[in-house]
Fold this sequence. Notes:
Blueprint: E1 13-14, E2 29-30, H1 37-49, H2 60-73, E3 82-83, E4 88-89, H3 95-106, E5 118-122, E6 127-130, E7 138-140, E8 145-150, E9 153-158, E10 162-172, E11 180-184, E12 187-191, E13 195-207, E14 211-214, E15 221-226, E16 231-236, E17 242-244, E18 252-257, E19 263-268, E20 275-278, E21 296-297, E22 304-305, E23 316-319
Parallel strand pairs: 5-13, 14-20
Antiparallel strand pairs: 1-12, 2-11, 3-4, 6-9, 7-10, 8-9, 10-13, 11-12, 14-17, 15-16, 15-18, 18-19, 20-23, 21-22
Amino acid sequence: xxxxxxxxxxxxxxxxxxxxxxxxxxxxxxxxxxxxxxxxxxxxxxxxxxxxxxxxxxxxxxxxxxxxxxxxxxxxxxxxxxxxxxxxxxxxxxxxxxxxxxxxxxxxxxxxxxxxxxxxxxxxxxxxxxxxxxxxxxxxxxxxxxxxxxxxxxxxxxxxxxxxxxxxxxxxxxxxxxxxxxxxxxxxxxxxxxxxxxxxxxxxxxxxxxxxxxxxxxxxxxxxxxxxxxxxxxxxxxxxxxxxxxxxxxxxxxxxxxxxxxxxxxxxxxxxxxxxxxxxxxxxxxxxxxxxxxxxxxxxxxxxxxxxxxxxxxxxxxxxxxxxxxxxxxxxxxxxxxxxxxxxxxxx
Length: 348
């Protein structure tokens, strides 16, 4: 029995083998509220992946799809294909098609299994993602993200700073309309339709690195401001006088502000993304002299010495190369440090 819709001769599926095909059978429809949701979802998947999907164009796929829908609606019924001449069950003849249809359904909701869904990325870094199902997904992103897909992997390259979202999605719009359920008394008939999309989203924060502060004071609060005097965050030194910031949003000039309103300037550039700032103890302003001892780490001689520096130099900034995302304290890893200090403007 091959059922079609009167209006356009589009094929439909019955929920009951005993459905009678009388004139004006399909006189109205309702959204899915007459059968359990899980049953409706299973049937719409069978209809979608069944007859006319991809290479399922042979008419036998219609009868296989209808057969499986009846088995889902009436699990206690003994339903099978029968050879009318020999009066015997020939369902096994369609085992391969039935298994293919069930495989398509079981893989329908397979998501991307990523290690994480939120990424913190330096402006000059890339993200590499791999998943066995990635080739089945499309990608949607902003113009500030470039990506390159190769089979089941994708490389994502940031272009500009900011927080971005990338969506991996699968469209199931093989048909234009949604599935329709037709009702005629106790008879239910459905027309195949498109399915909701499936998507996986990741968030990417493209940033300019961090700063690390070594201070002589423990449990001490430093505020980080940008060049427009916007507060970025507060950091607190630990029991060793060490503090680590969150990710800075952009290149540019920044400064630290301590509780005494003293400023410590630093600059983030393309070549200087992560910095270690060492702050010396010069709070005794009453006894402060023109000569202030400042610790300089000598990378060649591996020693600490004093330099005569005018009192408008209040801090020392030391650049640290990135080594596997670990930033080490200077007194332990002096050989990695590059000495450099900057002059700071006097307070007004």
